[in-house]
From TrEMBL:
It comes from Adineta ricciae (Rotifer). Residues 1-22 are annotated as: Disordered. This is F-box domain-containing protein. WD repeats lie at residues 271-297, 298-337, 338-377, 378-407, 418-457, 458-497, 501-540. One of its GO terms (biological process) is ubiquitin recycling.
């Protein structure tokens, strides 16, 4: 499969098929291939015209008969038949005639000649030692003829091959199979009935999904009636989504949500069911993905909404009116108004029932969104706080005073002040161990949160880093220099620069990592899709009508199955709207 980037366990007949070769190039992820590989309904392998006809014995391997045998079963059964034949395991006396030999023969091959039968009778009458010497002499005699040696090799090899899936205890066979890529396990399940049953073990597929961080998919899928194994079905859905993001043509028809008139959409949230957009028109709107309609318009702020957050049942918003409001997502009513900041609330970070807010008043405040209570105030910055992160233990804040501060909120204590940037800090990401900061000084710095030290300085961008996303040790950064870069924060090296003739024509406004792709939006009115592993451009996902003439995509949010972007223009050439592409 595409994410595994490995070859598949397939028969020569299957791998030589031109149509399947094309699918290999497309990462075996088309819907048809996923149905074939992951359902296991079709055991029989297609035969290439250039290959020989299957013998009767071989045809048993590819039949759909539930009683059919694996290769090793067939060989052992044949061996037992030979052993049970008295004429083949009892040495012939001189009185025995050649006619008394019972030699198994295939209906597709001619009977053995008299000379061969005489030679075989002599061989069977020998002692074990003489048989070994005669075999060695036969091989030496054939050593000058490559065709004969190959024939001997092909006849002997199957007797030394073991079917580990059938012969090993099930637990050991599953232990071996878990080291294979999921694509190979899926293809191996089509070998025979015994392999199919073992390769469809639910715990095996659970481990394979967990290795790729693929969650169990509960919602209805296109594979529900075909794949019973819930974890295998989740993997198949994941592969299907990877294919549709990259290859589906035409692109899914966009769902358009129009609102906020000609104002700028400043913040965007998306949970798969609802979209929440905040604007400098002082309002937020809740859009239903199912109906395409605006469910609620949240009105109450006396200034533009600059930041927002979302839980299962609540929406939190910060505004230029210096307040934070907590809204009920179902009814649209305002449950709490949080007063305290003395200037614009510029950023929010949600963790459970706690929200952390950063303001242009240079303070960071901690609130409980259920009770509306202010828990802590963190003072120390000397200029506006532009970005905050919170993981339940540490609060991390970046400010226009060129510093990043690490706080223990319960103690209201700053444990580290991270100095090094020479200009305003605009963006932060925090994974609990590493802090990554982007600044107007064109630098990205990686810090150790426990030690408070700078680990790496990532150089290469030429302007402000507008957005970043961290997945494991891979960092994706979007910059106002119109490029996107992919970094390894462990080594500090730039892996790829997403540029070239397909790069954005102006500043990159936002970046998201979804599946194995990077999605970037730009001031040029475009949303582009890139390969995370190779850095290659794949295709344009969104192109506004006013692209190149003032159209802007301000924000994007992605799930594995959908893309949501907030778009408009700076000169009224494009309506302000939210665009959604559903790939599921």
């Amino acid at each position: 499969m595409s994410s595994d980037s490995v070859g598949l366990l397939s028969s020569p007949e299957r791998s030589s098929s031109p149509s399947l070769l094309d699918q290999n190039i497309n990462d075996y992820a088309t819907t048809t291939q996923i149905f074939d590989d992951y359902t296991g309904l079709n055991f029989q392998q297609p035969r290439s015209p250039s290959k020989r006809q299957l013998t009767i014995e071989e045809s048993l391997i590819t039949t759909n008969d539930p009683k059919r045998l694996c290769n090793s079963n067939l060989r052992e059964q044949t061996d037992l038949n030979l052993i049970s034949s008295t004429s083949l395991h009892t040495p012939l006396s001189s009185a025995n005639s050649i006619d008394s030999l019972s030699i198994p023969s295939s209906p597709t091959t001619p009977p053995l000649s008299t000379d061969v039968l005489n030679w075989l009778a002599t061989f069977l009458g020998m002692s074990n030692e003489d048989r070994s010497r005669a075999t060695e002499a036969l091989i030496r005699t054939c050593s000058t003829n490559t065709l004969q040696l190959n024939h001997i090799k092909n006849q002997i090899e199957p007797y030394f091959q073991r079917d580990f899936v059938r012969d090993l205890p099930r637990e050991l066979a599953l232990h071996v199979l878990k080291y294979l890529p999921a694509s190979d396990v899926a293809r191996a399940s089509r070998t025979c009935r015994a392999w199919y049953e073992t390769c469809n073990d639910i715990l095996l597929w659970k481990r394979l999904c967990q290795t790729k961080v693929i969650p169990l998919k509960q919602s209805p899928t296109i594979f529900d009636d075909i794949i019973e194994n819930s974890w295998k079905r989740s993997y198949a859905c994941h592969k299907h989504l990877e294919y549709t993001w990259q290859h589906e043509k035409p692109l899914p028809a966009p769902l358009i949500f129009r609102g906020h008139e000609d104002f700028v959409i400043t913040c965007l949230q998306f949970d798969g069911k609802r979209i929440v957009s905040g604007s400098d028109d002082n309002s937020l709107k809740i859009w239903s993905v199912a109906t395409g309609q605006c469910e609620q318009t949240l009105v109450g702020h006396n200034g533009g909404v600059w930041c927002s957050g979302m839980t299962d049942d609540l929406i939190v918003s910060g505004s230029t009116d210096r307040t934070i409001r907590v809204w009920n997502i179902e009814t649209g009513t305002c449950q709490h108004v949080l007063y305290g900041h003395t200037s614009t609330v510029r950023c929010l970070a949600l963790h459970g029932d706690i929200v952390v807010s950063g303001s242009r008043d240079a303070t960071v405040r901690v609130w409980n969104i259920r009770t509306g209570e202010r828990l802590h105030m963190l003072s120390g910055h000397t200029a506006a706080v532009r970005c905050v992160c919170y993981n339940g233990k540490y609060v991390v804040s970046g400010a226009y005073d060129h510093t990043i501060r690490v706080w223990l909120p319960d103690d209201e204590r700053c444990v580290h002040t991270l100095e090094g940037h020479t200009n305003r800090v605009y963006s932060l990401v925090f994974d609990g161990k590493h802090i990554v900061s982007g600044s107007l000084d064109c630098m990205i710095r990686v810090w150790d949160v426990e030690q408070g030290t700078c680990i790496h300085q990532l150089t290469g961008h030429l302007s402000l880093t507008s957005g970043m996303q961290l997945r494991g040790n891979i960092l994706v950064s979007g910059n106002a220099d119109s490029t996107v870069k992919i970094w390894n924060i462990d080594s500090g090296k730039c892996l790829h620069t997403l540029a070239g003739r397909n790069k954005h024509a102006s500043a990159v406004t936002w970046v998201q990592v979804v599946l194995n792709y990077v999605v970037s939006s730009g001031d040029d009115g475009m949303v582009k899709l890139w390969d995370l592993e190779t850095g290659d451009f794949i295709r344009n996902l969104v192109k506004l009508e006013s692209t190149g003439n003032g159209g802007v995509v301000w924000r994007i949010k992605c799930t594995d199955s959908a893309l949501v972007c907030a778009a408009g223009s700076r000169n009224s050439t494009e309506d302000t709207k939210v665009i959604m592409l559903d790939f599921d």
